[in-house]
Amino acid sequence: MLKLAAKSRSLPQAGPQSRAAEWLVCLHRDRLLYLMLAPFVIYYIIFYYLPFGGLRMAFMDYKPFLGYARSPWVGFEKFQEFFTGPYFWRIIRNTLTISLMNMAFGFPIPIVLAILFNEVRSKMFRTAVQTISYMPHFISTVVIAGLVVNFLSPSIGIVNILLQKLGFESAYFLTKPEFFKPIYVLQGIWANAGFASIIYFSSLMSIDSSLYEAATIDGAGRWKQIKHVTLPGLLPTIGIMLLLQIGHFMQIGYEMIILLYQPITYETADVIGTFVYRVGIQNSDYSMSTAVGLFNGFVSLVLVLSANRLSKKISDVSIM
């Protein structure tokens, strides 16, 4: 033992130069992999990390012709103006309400679709239905908005035609504030549920088939197999996707809202994203729009970190 200890003490310790040489050897060995990774790294650096420098506009009265160097610093003045403004509670209320509706109705539907696809025994029929359900995701947002407007048209819309056949009066739903949120959530489910089910369906494919065979031998029917085999196998994926959705809780797709809303529906349709668009693009108040966007990002970060910490405490599912 003494000889081994003396020998180990006599061996040279790995210093910074040896670690650098080892890193260079690994870099040379895996150079093709790093070369394949380089475009994605460059993309994220240019479009996600370099724009962080523009966050300073939130603390300035930024004027494009003055630039960063000569625009005056105002501290938290833009944040105070936003928090005390007349539209703060309206856009926060609408953002939270639409996000909760998306989570309550839009989040479970892809899970249900994936389970239904998994239960279909005809591969040809399942492929056809999956393809049909995926298609709306690849349609342009502008086209989907046009379809929604046409479907809900008071004169030629199929919804109003059906209402008239049933004896009801036609209505222009897009001009009624109380209908905007359900319309937005339903079109989002139609456009994205099929595509979102892919990841759950992939997780179902990884479940050991012997578990279903054992459940069948024990006398479990289709419903009990779903309850005791399918859903437990999906729980880790559901947990991760829920955490990711919580991270985007305050970030609603404002493009569709801009295409559908009107001044008469601002009361229930105006969210943080549309407010940032109007203030920043239409009113050219870049400092205010940056401040609101920074506030939105900070809230999203707090939500996802809190949800991840809570998930770690009650289960083994986490994203970090």
Automatic annotation (TrEMBL):
Domain ABC transmembrane type-1 intervals: 92-307
The name this protein goes by in its record: ABC transporter permease subunit
Alphabetical keyword list: Cell membrane, Membrane, Transmembrane, Transmembrane helix, Transport
Major localisation: membrane
Cellular compartment(s): Cell membrane
PANTHER family assigned to the protein according to its UniProt record, in alphabetical order: BLL4140 PROTEIN
The organism of origin for this protein: Paenibacillus baimaensis
InterPro entries from the UniProt entry: MetI-like, MetI-like_sf, UgpAE/MalFG_permease
Membrane-spanning ranges: 32-50, 96-117, 138-163, 183-201, 229-250, 286-305
Pfam families xref list: BPD_transp_1 (PF00528)
Its membrane topology: Multi-pass membrane protein
Recorded family membership: Belongs to the binding-protein-dependent transport system permease family.
